[in-house]
Please model this.
Amino acid sequence: MAAADPAMTADHGPASGTPVRRKEDARLLTGRGRFVSDLALPRMRHVAFVRSPVAHGRITGVDTAEALEVEGVSAVFTGEHPAIGPVAMRAQSALPGYVETDQPPLARGKVRFAGEAVAAVVATDRYVAEDGAEAVVVDYEPLPPTVCAWAEPAHPVHDEAPDNLLLSRTFRAGDVDAALADAHVVVDRELTTNRHGGNPVECRAGVARYEAADRKLTFWSGTQVPWIVRTQLAELLDLPEGNIRVIAPDVGGGFGVKAVLYPEDVALCLMAMAMPGTALKWVEDRVEHLLAATHARDHRYVLRAGFAADGELLAVKADVWCNAGAYSVHPWTAGIEPLMAGGLLTGPYKLADYECTVRGVATNTSPSGPYRGVARPSTVFAMEALMDSGARALGMDPIALRRRNLILPADVPYRMPSRLVDDSGAYEACLDRAVATFDLHRWRGEQVRRRRDGGRPLGIGVGIYNELTGLGRAASAGPRMAFRTGHDACTVRINPDGAVTVFSGVTSQGQGLETTMAQVVADALGVDYGDVEVRIGDTDQSLWGFGAFSSRQAVIGGGAAHLAGEHVRGKALALAAALKEAPVEELDLRGGQVYMAGQAKPIISLAEVAKVAYLQSDRLPEGFEPGLEGTKFYDPIRGAFAAGAQIAALEFDPATGEIGILDWVCVEDAGRIVHPVIVDGQIAGSIAQGIGGAMYEHLVYDDAGNLSTGTLLDYLMPTAGEIPELRIGHVSTPAANPTGVRGVGEGGTLAPNAVVAGALADALGVEIDDLPVTPARVWELVHP
Amino acid sequence: MKITVTVNGERHRLDVEPRRTLVDALRDDLGLTGTHVGCEHGVCGACTVLVDGEPVRACLMLAVQADGASVATVEGLAGDDGTLHPLQEAFSRCHGLQCGACTPGMLMTAVHLLDTDPDPGRETIRAEMSGNICRCTGYTGIVDAVAEAARRRVTSETS
Amino acid sequence: MKCPPFDYHRATSVADAVDALQAAGDEGKILAGGQSLVPVLALRLARPAVLVDVNRIPGLAGLERRDGVLHAGALVRHLALADQRQHPLAAEAARWIGHTAIRSRGTLAGSLAHADPAAELPAVLRACDGAVQVAGPSGTRRLRADELFVGALQSALADTEMITGVELPVPDAWGFAEFARRHGDFAVVSVAAARFGERVRIVVGGVAGVPHLVDAGDLATVDGDVSDDRVTLLAAAAADDVDPASDLHGSAGYRRALTEQMTLRALADLAGHLRPVREPA
Model:
């Protein structure tokens, strides 16, 4: 997967579909990236948070006197500080029965999880700030902690929810009990999935500076959602929205963890407002990240499925508990995981009779939030476990059973039992190509050979999934929040010299959106990729964007970029036509030159047109405004389902539990592909995170609510030594949006749980109910 | 404490607290923010630099320990005219980076790997790069990039 | 995650280091490779008043084999230990430590003094019945491996003492096996096996507070016999002899099973190295 030379685009062919050199690479490869962690401002001070060592307790006293004596400490803030005290964050949803709860920027009155920020120390540098933080004395009166979301609550986390239930909803279609009664076989599974999290290589980071004279706040933040952050901050800080500038420059990975407005963010801004003119910087360290950045996937599924004798899936009944942690995550609410779980549990399978009750349960653990694939790595594991159990009960081939139930092209648009409308139907195509690429026949043969001749038992696992991407206003699968995230804006500006600056509402944490947007605009407008520069992540530069989540940006931001590019192309051609007195319908813009139909030589350059538009108004024809730019919004209204199938061969050593991945194939329908290498990179990276979650990553709390995996010595992320060579293929069915793309950022994470667990069952005949699949777990299953 | 460190060929005199790590001195005292901080406990590899030619976790070395040493960081890889180092070039061609946070550590680890083993196989590359965590790429592009840089170097040396 | 403040003393000699440690009372700490100490400091789990940097003390990085024993200086880095050919078991074990950027700094004596029961080199020292040379305020002393390791992360070294040299008898056959979660991780269980004459010493790491020397009774007298049957019996004996605790990375039963499997692998490795290692000419 080698990218081409930039010269490849010099023939003025389309940039989309080709692996152009990424715009981001030159600075990121040479150490010239601009990350928030790198930012240094004059007279900047550094912040360290004091964090709760107890999971649940009343704060009976905070003594900051000693901390203020530490040389270099300039201020200490607590939850009761007048600058902090009046403010509370409250994730809102109109969902019936949802219990709204407050989250203070710094704990007030009580602490609800180990790692919650209780106080903040401002000092000359981070070393001194940590010295100060160590000197803050906080007294706690412990309360009994609740760690498990499906155990009896020990003591309410929030008074408003005495049973810790923040939200519950039942998805219902048809008559599930009747369908189960009619089933030829009924299978039951009880599954749990392992809490883990994003752990981008750059942790969270923020710099806030407030200018009191004009009441303006600038917040540099490693966020995926600068516009959402701005809106929320305006409300929380009581500032006009236009007075807040949020800048997300280079961001070192996000994966959902940075799509959250955190209490530390709000505290940092409030402290900056209390210290006008002083820039305050907080860079989260890894221990803080593991403790207090959002976690995910701490779920339990109690499942029952009924199948007909021919394998038709007749009914699924499910009870789901999602551990929401101590606070309803802002702004997504505690509904983010349970609602996605209930809405998409049935995945790519046709089903009429469905009943699924999902719950978001508060516990004394770090809040759960969005993490790549939101809930679906767990639901795909659950659904594929039912398929595998069903196949065993029916004596059917597991892949044949899946085929029997897949949503096919003829079924599309397919209304899922959760009432989401699936526009894909490419599942079987993905599965077919995956099976062929994998060479299932050969691996089955190897499996038989090993069973006969000895050798490590080999299993084949499969996972098929749909991925709801690019959600438009009508396709929301999440909680009913006060905003809909269906649209993004893009401004395309042709500069006086004819080069193009794009102000896009997308944000990038490694996805290469500068590149992708440049490709889309270059083609829509008719200029070379090299002549397009893209500015993203700054609320003062581009008009609007909801940011990076739900694999939405290529679809929605890309759509806006395409529309804006076309719009400005129209304007440029109209002006060219007027200037050259040529019929506009016979003009074409390619490679920054305007051509007349049938003529080989351009009649005028875009640069010349732009010069007139900006600098030579005396040449402007009647009725033309100066300037050459345009802004467009795009909303796909519905979403674009992406499809995918993964299949892999794994071997297991029954004596040690050792797991070896021998081959791993993934085929996805990402729609039309703008940058093939970036798309494959997204898929490979998401599979790797999925494998991490399936086999290595586990945030473990002890019964007292202490995080037992608080460093990277215990929280294990896979390295180049663990991730296998991945074979990635494509089925490209263009989606019904301006660029034809389907989102691609998350799909890869969805299958590995199912694939690894399925392979284990296939190899050793043991069903694994609790993830992750570790050597120790494998050994325990084989030696009960 | 006063120390002298040569970074990418340039000599610097610094006055640092003994507890200051080398990576903090590079980033905050010298403004060389190309070297990144990922975990500060020696696991993730993001801060890997070369000290007197050997790869080192700059979060586990105190700046005072580098007194008199020669440090190579990512900022020194490209030529003064902006020409990318062959590994940087390969990382770009093979999509060996996404967000760029692990990239400086990956590059410095790979520079040392190819200095000691000019023609490593993919398995060796995977083993030797396994001290550096990347959260974005799934490592495919990184392994491709190191392999390609090695191949190009071997080819250019034998032609 | 920033270290708490401390003073720093760059020692110029062993005597200077010992003096500095003594001056610090029980508040001094030796900084060698720093690969274990600096994380502990960054987590503020320790707050020594003085770090005594021994890295620039001359003469402590030597490797010399004399009379069947590898004499290694305290500052021999893991990379150097992995590269030397005079003690193949130590070389093999060193290759399992972390990653190149860890091995480039980490030192043999530092690893032994840190006394992590899951670390590779303590297991090797014990398997080879090695010893360390220690310098302190009242002179030098020699501690055998059995005496050095007291408990998890606890050695018999006083706060004012430092290891200056390591004696590693060279076995005439050896084997090493390790099971770790990921490439370069600390072992869940590791096994070092060393044959001296007719006795095999098997040491298991990761199953107790100190590297565990397996008491295999008469089975350990192999007299050239490392047949499959004997290996199987020894591995079972090793599994029987350990009493591991359960933790995040595995139950006691699992660690016991790994002990058996890693012993099998280490002894198979040993059987493959049966030709005696000769003194280099």
Observations:
- The beta strands of chain B are 2-7, 10-15, 48-51, 54-57, 70-72.
